[in-house]
């Protein structure tokens, strides 16, 4: 009987196991399945862990989670695995188009994912052929076409392996190495190298006097900010329900200052208030079909190209139509379609491109955030960059499907991923409520935006001393790194990945990207022989696939393709 190991039982591993069982139920081929996961709540992964505090919110609308479909009833061998409801049915989701979109705590989705896994496990543990181990895999090796798996207390051999392990630690940057050495030299200073788990900051959130630097100005910073300030001294209160305008009130005096900073100082852009406003930016089904076809015409046809016009041109075409249809909802202009398209292409190709239709990012960060909030509310005319960002978000699923396993050269793959990452300030933006909380903390003199744009940083005995362009300065005795590393395979430090690289069982598609895989998820080895029985789905395959960080991609066709390919191979042997 063949043996399969699944390493990692987050959402992607869960959906892979489900689809494996669905495909196996169509055959008479029994297999041994061993699951390895280091997390205490299988099905969730670290991102959706059930034990994280309520202050960690989902950053996509609950409405969008319609993509997490129900699991059908599965008759596998001698057992029946009962059906499991979709996420919307499970939480009895209901919302009209004018209601504000909901962005619940991440642990809510974690509860759903864990329940969905447990419903599988209840049936599977009655089988001798299924084993679940709550353990971290440290090494994998290949000998005589058998894979050998090692944890701290267990070894097992198998014929095939699926790797779905998500985010992995990476080597510290030179800046972080210097800061680590610096912090170790002074007992009064603290450095946190990662933003998660967020509960590690429990020891500092209720100090009466403290200045805290936060490296990064993205979604993780929002989680850190919210956790630190919902404390024994104060909390948030929404004072206008229709706009989520918020105040931060103190029940006791606390001298705390949060000081976020990043290389460009640009803030996140909140998502539209509700479905009704979000529909302003929705491409038609025909537009999305054409968009996908134009990308596939280049990405899947081995067509030589030295630019990403095949992506930027169709996205510009859609955005022109949508921005013109906004009429008085958008900033007034007299540009023709051709002029507007040129303007959009210029903005996509140059981060610092300026124009009266583009939001001026040189204004104060506070006013910039307020403007984007007002656009998301539909309260002021929409700038062209806000429109492009929302259209990009609607096009992302089609882009991810059309461009994954692209046959273009590695530099083009890197450029496409780079542009998608650049768009995430808009497309992966937080709820309006998060940005209103940030402004409330500024109003309460708890969070400073004075040093957000790449300050000079000097290391002193008192801590990290920031100086801005106006020569103002502040010193922080605690530093939190909220920048999440990109999945650059060669920088990953986990023993498992280092051993796989050392044993020549995986290779990066590009020195700056992740593991190279085939369309059905199997690794392409350094010697170009596709005979290593290891498949990789998810974050570590970034480059071969894109969009790997989105929760809906964990329940998408790439996982289904792997299951079909694996079972098809079983039947042919």
UniProtKB/TrEMBL annotation:
SUPFAM superfamilies: FAD/NAD(P)-binding domain. InterPro entries: FAD/NAD-bd_sf, HpyO/CreE_NAD-binding, L-asp_N-monooxygenase_NS-form. Residues 5-168 form the FAD-dependent urate hydroxylase HpyO/Asp monooxygenase CreE-like FAD/NAD(P)-binding domain. This is FAD/NAD(P)-binding protein. It comes from Winogradskyella marina.
